[in-house]
Amino acid sequence: VSSPGSTLTPLSPQRLQAAVHYTVGSLCQDVAEDKEVQFSKQTVAAIAEITFRQCEIFAKDLEMFARHAKRSTINTEDVKLLARRSNSLLKYITQKSEELALSNMEQKEKKKKKSSASMGGRTAEQEAAVTESEDSSMV
């Protein structure tokens, strides 16, 4: 994949599969240490292969959900539809989606406040000074 701030470069299927295999291997190693068991290389390879194939199926399903809705972009609702058979996963995705939406709204509010202040809008301090000035001139 790529680092933050850089343009995204798609991975070749082989590199993506290798990345999945590496990640599965790391997860199996963590489980092995935690549960005091061992995974053979063949078992890790089989889990990685199944994981990769399932991800391909998920990608095709997501594409079809968006296409069915006459969209070219996959959105959160498509992902929720994909996760509908796992209550815990659906709950997690819904929670994260709501957190993201809230964060996006907060970012938009901050941008609005910044742009209105820089475009001649008054800050609370400026407004108080103007009001005080107006009050003193009326006396």
UniProtKB/TrEMBL annotation:
GO cellular component: FANCM-MHF complex; kinetochore
Principal location: nucleus
Protein keywords: Cell cycle, Cell division, Centromere, Chromosome, DNA damage, DNA repair, DNA-binding, Kinetochore, Mitosis, Nucleus
Position of the signal peptide: none
Localization of this protein: Chromosome, Centromere, Kinetochore; Nucleus
Superkingdom of the source species: Eukaryota
PANTHER family: CENTROMERE PROTEIN S (PTHR22980:SF0), CORTISTATIN (PTHR22980)
Protein name per the record: Centromere protein S
Organism: Crotophaga sulcirostris (Groove-billed ani)
